[in-house]
Amino acid sequence: MSKPFANASPERVAELKESLAEIQQRVEQASPHKPTLVAVSKYKPTADILACYEAGQRDFGENYVQELVDKLPQDIRWHFIGTLQSNKAKILASLPSLYAIQTLTSTKAATALNNALPAARTTPLRVFLQVNTSGEDAKSGMPPLTSGAPPSAELTQLARHVVAECPRLRLQGLMTIGSLAESLAAAEKPNEDFAALVRTRDVLQDALAALGFPADGARWGEDGRLLLSMGMSSDFEAALAAGSDVVRVGTGIFGARHRKGEAASG
Fold first, then answer.
1. Segment (H or E) for 69
2. Contact status, residue 42 vs residue 61, Cβ threshold 8 Å
3. CB-hemisphere CA count at 13 Å for 7?
4. Which of 8, 19, 133, 146 could form a disulfide with 193 if both were Cys (CB 3.0 to 4.6 A apart)?
5. For residue 226, what are the β-bridge partners?
């Protein structure tokens, strides 16, 4: 590592290990398919990340480019989960520990990433296309697909662009941030946002095959299917039950988030 990192207090290490172990156990119980747990560490000090790393956690998520630049210990697999701006692509692409970008929404950003990846990188950068399943104006993402969606649909065209025009990227799957209302009602009924992402994945897979990129062509997904990233601290078990492959948990592991310099309120 380029610079030393401070260690968390023994009490904080014990707290983090306990929280992480609890979340890991709940993930395992909710799905038999060994989903990926991404620990969302935004606004958290590097000491917290190191404590989880030393407890065996490897996948971490950040929303801001600068946070990724500041937090690069060892062989962590970073997942960028913030708003992706094409003018930040060069910085992101230069990070050797960047494992995946889960918020791709435009061909411009895809092309910028593909062109900016250094020659020294030997593996494609995994990307997830963000889908706005709830239709909320405050959320980023493309509209979900329904059966019979035309090939000209925005999501289908972006997927085709990544697979056909961006050889240094790998279309890994789809990501969504469901609505709070659906999340809070998870114990009472199936989450409609999660169901919409599952349907979208199925339609998109068929569309890619129709465009000449079949599942067995090794150009997208994993084991012949696109992966789904859905579910956070409040609803990851419902997401796993609905078929999620990747869950993003922050508060459940690290506790409530506070911006840098912001005092805790309780």
1. helix 65-70
2. yes
3. 6
4. 133
5. none
